[in-house]
Design a protein that fits this description.
It is a single chain. By secondary structure, this protein is an alpha/beta fold. The chain has 11 helices and 11 strands. The strands form 3 sheets. It has a 6-stranded mixed beta sheet. It is globular, with a radius of gyration of 21 Å. The two termini are 42 Å apart.
């Protein structure tokens, strides 16, 4: 097995993966429905939640669960759940594509992933970080919003036209993810003011992939957890938040983080910087009275390259637990972004009615 550590078990006492080849959980399921129920129209949240299973947190439990779902129409949906103990989303993408390549051709054509991260950052003791209890919600809604490439280009051009010449140079470098994140943050701040009846402090938090962003010689195909968090307050002085204001705050935070990590050439300094970013993120999660907006981007990850000999996937989706979250995934066509958003039901109704969200999504 090329990605052999996924078949092992996590040893809590030693904080390591025992590569004992006990295997992963593999489930085959028959779905009484068609795949178009997920690809077209409103999402069937109950159906989507049945297509995947989380790994159990129990001791000696499997770290990966794969579920292959066969629909009445003859099409398939393959779900994959990873424990974060063995890797991040980029690691999951490496595994999916390695598996697909092995199915499509032969194992010798799979590019072996790299497992040097633990040697660069050896575990000494558990991090002294207390995770807060997350507010799981009973009445929540999941929505998939499609931001077309054309709509994102139009937003970028509008932002450039309305800014001063000093800021246009920075805005021209704004990414699709920053543009979508700014639009979503703007809408969620407005929604929060309506539902809470007051103006609360808002916080934006997002993880960033550190592969090829630091001076350390770490391969792009390194497996494990190799990311840091950006966590910033979204200070809004206006009565209503503006898109340009959000874009400047978020874009500057991303640019500053990239510049900071690009200067790090020492493993110890990198560990300290990543640990500090995690503490900031956890602190925001546990901050009472704050409007936390957590956004995760899977854009530019090779999720649409996984061809099992049946062709590339029609859609890559996300099934979120019942708490506020935003996942951004590349659209399969036109350079757009699909946003998978989980909110409580009252928030979702208002969010979908936001004029800018309506104007930029389908």
């Amino acid at each position: 097995m090329v990605v052999y550590h996924i078949a092992g078990r996590y040893v809590e006492d030693g904080l390591f993966i025992d590569c004992n080849d006990q295997g992963v959980e593999f489930i085959q399921a028959k779905v009484d429905g068609t795949l178009d129920q997920l690809l077209q129209g409103d999402l069937d949240r109950d159906l989507l939640s049945c297509l995947s299973k989380f790994p159990l947190p129990a001791a000696n439990a499997t770290l990966v669960v794969v579920q292959v779902n066969s629909f009445n129409c003859g099409r398939l949906a393959i779900s994959l759940r990873f424990s974060h103990k063995i890797g991040d989303m980029y690691t999951m993408a490496i595994f999916i594509n390695s598996w697909a390549t092995a199915c499509r051709s032969r194992i010798h054509e799979v590019v072996p992933p790299n497992f040097e991260l633990p040697s660069l950052f050896p575990v000494k003791e558990p991090a002294s970080i207390q995770w807060p209890t997350l507010p799981f919600r009973k009445n929540f809604a999941l929505a998939r919003l499609k931001f077309s490439g054309q709509a994102l280009s139009r937003l970028k051009a509008t932002s450039n036209a309305s800014n001063s010449s000093d800021s246009i140079a920075n805005n021209s470098q704004r990414s699709r993810v920053e543009i979508v994140s700014a639009l979503i943050c703007k809408a969620l701040i407005s929604v929060d003011r309506v539902t809470k009846g007051l103006s609360r402090p808002s916080v934006y938090s997002t993880p960033i992939n550190l592969r090829e962003r630091v001076q350390l010689k770490i391969p792009a195909n390194a497996c494990g957890n190799f990311f840091a968090h950006i966590t910033i307050p979204l200070t809004v002085e206006e009565r209503e938040p503006s898109f340009n204001g959000m874009l400047n705050l978020i874009g500057d935070a991303h640019r500053n983080a990239k510049l900071k990590y690009a200067t790090i050439a020492d493993a110890g300094a990198l560990c300290s910087a990543v640990a500090d970013s995690l503490r900031d993120h956890v602190g925001a999660l546990g901050k009472d009275g704050a409007n936390l907006i957590p956004i995760t981007s899977w854009c530019r990850f090779p999720l649409y390259d996984s061809d099992f000999w049946w062709g590339k996937p029609d859609s890559v989706s996300n099934s979120s637990p019942p708490l506020r979250s935003v996942r951004l995934v590349d659209s399969p066509v036109d350079g757009g972004i699909d946003a998978w958003i989980t909110l409580n039901q009252d928030e979702m109704v208002l969010f979908k009615q936001d004029p800018d969200i309506l104007a930029c999504t389908s």
